[in-house]
Amino acid sequence: MVHRVIRVGLLLCGTLSFSVHAKSTWGEFKSTMTGIGDSVKSFGMGMAESFGMNPPDYEYSFRVFNDSSESVTVQAHRIKSFQGIKARKGTIKEMTLTPSQDTGQTGFNALNLYLDVELKWPEGSFTESITKLAAKHDKTIYHFHVFETKAGIAAENIGKGYTTTDLYLGSIYNSLSTVQTVSFDYAGQRFSVVLDKDSHNMLQSDKDIPHCMRPVKDAAFIDCGTAGKISVLSAGLATGKEDKGVWTNVMPLQYHHEIIENVDKSGKAVTKVVTAGFNPGNYTQPTNKRVRNITPIRCSVWNTSAAQATSPVQEGQLLTSISIDQGSRSVWCVYSTPGWSNKTFSVNDTVMVQIPAGKAVEWYIMRPSIDGSKYLTSEELLTVQETEFEGSEKIDSSPIGSTSSKTTKQSTDLSNKKSSQESQDQSLVLNLSQYIKTTAPQTTKAELYIVSLDTIDEKKARQFLQNLIDGKLPKPARVEFNTQVTDGQLGQTIKNTLFANKLPENQGLINDTQSGVSGFILNYDLFTAYGAGQGPYYYTLYPPKVTLSNLYVHSLGGYMRRNAQDGSGNQIISDEDQAAAYKALADWVTKAAQSQTINQAIKNLRPQVEKFLQEYGMEQLFVKNNTSSKTFSSLGMQAVGMILTGPNSITKAPLIYSAGTNNYVYTYGSVPGYKDKTGKQVVTWQPSETIDLAGKVIISQPKPVETQDSTPVKNDQE
């Protein structure tokens, strides 16, 4: 019997052979071919990546960002291969990017596999072959980034999972051994900051501030003087989150800029500013302690007026205390920024501004430079969180902005000294002092003071504030109690000791003999080169209060007529007369406070006090047999004087000063407010006007009530 061999060959960059005997039926052959066909299809698709068979409907999209100083040509080439040899089959698309330009989302969209992505610039290029199968009709956009280093221009594939954002997050590394000045556009104005040598400087935008680092139309610039400019376009890269094909911004990518010294083609040293890559290793990591945040912090200080701070009084309600505006005092804010000036090599940028009652002053705070001249004191650097004198002593000491570190050696030293409580106390202080000297870093600081001064003279006020930030003024007077409270119990002996101490009249008062001004510190804040809180910061100040009930008892109440009886038949002052007295005192105290001098207040208020006593005063205040004209007796004249100028009088009423509120503690940068019963967010920040440092009105009307849920989120830098 003759056997014929039927040889069938399929060209798959090789040969597949099989044989069929003649006696086999055609049905058997067809069945065999069907099974082999399925295998061949699977085999062909699996080998497509290796052998260049372009599968249909498999697409690749990419986007290129050019952050170099040269023009970059972007090309997408079709590629195939035959037996492992790759060959280009023509250029599909080409585009040239100028510095700070990108291809856009649709520039290289839905290109069929397989591709060579080639980026070319003068004296260099970057190529990546795209040969991996993705999903059919893949909508993913892959990103390439061209950047610059000290060695020259380079490129990186940063992959997928990104979208664009109008927020900006970046760092500027001054790698030089000299200070450099950088200017940038922020919130519609230009800021200039001195960068310390060998320092990393953080800079980011604020979504709540329009035209902030990423303007809608025109490009903003980070200007490093002779080193050049960095364009900040209207959109930058951000990590994204995909939902049904739509990408939303999660977190802006941090752009890394460096001020470097390079050598040009002629061999000359040139200082220039460049934008580095995104991938770690393509830029200098900010791992040292020389990190500063140069993002301007929006700061608003509202000096509430008496009308804004006083709740409405309902009909028939007795007003027992009142807030007052003081015409003889002024409220000031001073912020000293330790920063180096290129011209004078000294500290500069001091903010010193008066805050009118009822208005808010708004400006931008710059954090102190790393090489500033003011440093945190030992007390500010050290926080003793836990001390135990029985058993093993533990000291947890942490400089501001750092993590806690246990001083185990000092703890061991202290635990060995148990001769007495006193010796242990001394040992603790000694070891903490030694710890500060040996381990505490010199951390720069800038101080913010908000003070109430007993003058309206601008020259004297500024002299006081300058002495304050220069450290020339004594600390405010305070009460010291050398009494130890044990076991958390406040026993009767300790109570007697505490209550026996009389509070001084100058509690919290600072006296400056040079300027002749005294003042109270209403708010104090401390800013370091890098730390918690991006802002904005809202500070609310409150006007002083006068307790009318106290003033009534010690002045006016003793001279009122008794025209009613209590339950025992005793003569008392009627409720109507008492209400009239409280109303009159509130009016007099307000007018006295608004007067610039006591003499002016006495002159204006004496007729009103006399008229009130003639209507509501007791008979002994007037000359007998002359009650119709109500001529004051010697006692009556004395009463008028005591009410006007006595120790507890309308011109010398004891004032209750309240510390201001740093609303950032409660709102983390949101506008101060609260949720009403319906869940709506009500804004409580409503000054009559908001002005800048030059007195120009920024906002003329109170901000509208917010109805959306604006639950604050803690800042990541906290």
List the SSEs and their pairings:
Blueprint: H1 26-46, H2 48-51, E1 59-66, E2 72-82, E3 85-97, E4 101-102, E5 108-112, E6 115-121, E7 124-130, E8 141-149, E9 152-159, E10 162-165, E11 169-174, E12 180-186, E13 189-195, E14 199-204, E15 220-223, E16 229-232, E17 236-243, E18 246-252, E19 254-263, E20 269-275, E21 291-293, E22 297-303, H3 306-309, E23 321-323, E24 330-336, E25 350-354, E26 359-365, H4 378-381, E27 396-397, E28 405-406, H5 408-415, H6 421-439, E29 445-453, H7 458-469, H8 492-500, E30 509-512, E31 517-528, E32 537-541, E33 545-547, H9 548-554, E34 564-565, E35 571-572, H10 575-594, H11 598-616, H12 634-645, E36 655-656, E37 661-662, H13 664-667, E38 673-675, E39 681-683, E40 689-691, E41 697-699
Parallel strand pairs: 1-8, 11-19, 14-21, 22-32, 26-40
Antiparallel strand pairs: 1-4, 1-5, 2-3, 2-6, 6-7, 8-9, 10-17, 11-14, 12-13, 12-15, 15-16, 17-18, 19-20, 22-26, 23-33, 24-25, 24-29, 27-28, 29-31, 30-31, 32-37, 33-36, 34-35, 38-39, 40-41
Helix pairs in contact: 5-6, 9-10, 10-11, 11-12
